[in-house]
Amino acid sequence: MSNPSILILPGDGIGPEVMAQVTRIIDWFGEKRDLKFDVETDLVGGAAYDKHGVPLADETMARAMEVDAVLLGAVGGPKYDDLDFSVKPERGLLRLRKEMDLFSNLRPAQCFDALADFSSLKKDIVSGLDIMIVRELTSGVYFGEPRGIHKEGNERVGINTQRYTESEIARVARSAFELARKRGNKVCSMEKANVMESGILWRDVVQEIHDAEYPDVELSHMYADNGAMQLVRAPKQFDVIVTDNLFGDVLSDCAAMLTGSLGMLPSASLGLPNADGRPKALYEPVHGSAPDITGQGKANPIACILSFAMALRYSFDQGAEATRLEKAVEKVLADGARTADLMGPEGGTPVSTTQMGDVILEAL
Amino acid sequence: MSNPSILILPGDGIGPEVMAQVTRIIDWFGEKRDLKFDVETDLVGGAAYDKHGVPLADETMARAMEVDAVLLGAVGGPKYDDLDFSVKPERGLLRLRKEMDLFSNLRPAQCFDALADFSSLKKDIVSGLDIMIVRELTSGVYFGEPRGIHKEGNERVGINTQRYTESEIARVARSAFELARKRGNKVCSMEKANVMESGILWRDVVQEIHDAEYPDVELSHMYADNGAMQLVRAPKQFDVIVTDNLFGDVLSDCAAMLTGSLGMLPSASLGLPNADGRPKALYEPVHGSAPDITGQGKANPIACILSFAMALRYSFDQGAEATRLEKAVEKVLADGARTADLMGPEGGTPVSTTQMGDVILEAL
Ligand SMILES: CC(C)[C@H](C(=O)O)[C@@H](O)C(=O)O
Ligand SMILES: CC(C)[C@H](C(=O)O)[C@@H](O)C(=O)O
């Protein structure tokens, strides 16, 4: 039987730097734990545009559909700011999400004990924080038609369409309820049902799926503006949050920043199961391509490494090995290893991107 | 010459309670400062629905168009949750915004010294914070057509339309640049130009207005998700933020909560100037109708009182009197008067809604 396959797309900015450390960790699992993967690497984002004139080549898209998991670094950078909308680096990522039908984006917002001081929030508000944001990722205003800029009389008009079907809402709701059952058994759904009809449908469908299939899970609804407030005021009130593509974008970034652990946060984007039961899946750090620190050995590879841990858990059914990797990361943090973004007043041992890889490998 | 006119719409929940204190303050200005207003009171939101079957009667709308300023308390409450979308309390407020063409919503996020400890953020991150969020209020996904829920085959589909014209963006951009010139001279515009064409148009038009008319103001652009992050990480980097209706809804609530002063924050919604040079205007607290504490004398009237201060400044050209009122509020806080929402570990003198009105009148 062949090994499970992984497509690595390091992308732009610090993407390649952090991904280099993940590659070493994948190798370690092959050598030491007899968990071998067939790994191939390709381009996405600006890097793909530079070579192919598009942010994701068709061949890369085709491979992404075939492999068992995709690991992505980050896309985008100022160099590409003036590109036409249709070939912006982000379009590569959006094409992957859409064509792989990755409707459920899992974004844990977790506060690491060793880093609680990094949060701009008071320690007691965030320490021990552990929220899972489930963001719908293949629909809504990101993909709705009609869209574009056109002329009406003398002036330009910009249009986008927020569009959700019942089944699109139902499937991401299910994925949130399933997750909640393995965690605190509590889901809060966020929309603007007070001003948007698409929000009314969202609320109704989430409630219906709950009542029919997950009555044991505690469900609440909140307007997204209040959601942003409550995340800042008392984030620990939440367990799983489920919301649409656009609110999920803003609220998950807000939640991530609360933790003070932005360079630490992974994400998983999951689709429907293949014949072998594995969901189509893409894993990527929550942070972006950080052009300001690219190439300086300053990037924190942990978010990307923990994204691979999520791959072990969700794509390869290796929960124990995922935990092993997560524990190794916790250990090096407790031991004081700190990339530049983690250097606070209380000190620690400054390490480069590669050195962070070194100590995590040692801890493994 | 007749007195300037004010239409008071107390609305639902704590709206009437906080507005009662504002009425006393308006009377004080008439008696002691010879600033007389013709005040009339009417219904909006659930209160209007209960009487008229609609959340804003046509006669009320007509009066709102005629008066010099509208003061609104709050709308909404659980009692109205199951009403049809078209008659929900919120529709009354949205109708006022739309028909009065109140395109520029000014939402200061300000941290009051005496209350810095209330923020969930660390004191050094928020103390002295003073941001002005300028939110577009008459367009975008709140009002775009087509909208609604319909059937496609067997399933329901929910649709809303984000739509911005060049002139809608230009006028709110101008209002942000004008404000910036009177403050820190810095504007940050937020959108999702990386995924939404309406965001591209937003960014382009803001930049064009800047280059042509306000080159002296410092302008930057930020994606709204990053904006949410930066608000949490380091809010003091901002002076004026300009953004669309929906992002403005979420980001201004997030910013308001950062300050720890939610019960303190006023807002002004301004339209085009009338023949007499006064802009059409509606003033309201940022907080909602707070059904959980309605009728208990617990509500903090300060946000509503400071909204009247904004009316003095923006509608009645009484900047000095506005400052007098704001200083009175600061004084009672410094003296320790605290409604329930302001009661922290460091104590203070607990006061009811009415007592807070009493001490502010005394301080005046
Ligand atoms: C890069 C961008 C297209 C993307 C998004 O808006 O979804 C990013 O912000 C994210 O959250 O993954
Ligand atoms: C009450 C509601 C319609 C309103 C909005 O969404 O604009 C409120 O949240 C606000 O921010 O004023």
Automatic annotation (TrEMBL), chains A, B:
Pathway: Amino-acid biosynthesis; L-leucine biosynthesis; L-leucine from 3-methyl-2-oxobutanoate: step 3/4. Binds 1 Mg(2+) or Mn(2+) ion per subunit. GO terms for biological process: L-leucine biosynthetic process. It holds the Pfam family Iso_dh. The gene is leuB. This is 3-isopropylmalate dehydrogenase. One of its GO terms (cellular component) is cytosol. Its cofactor is Mg(2+); Mn(2+). Mg(2+) binds at residues 225, 249, 253. Belongs to the isocitrate and isopropylmalate dehydrogenases family. LeuB type 1 subfamily. It catalyses: (2R,3S)-3-isopropylmalate + NAD(+) = 4-methyl-2-oxopentanoate + CO2 + NADH.
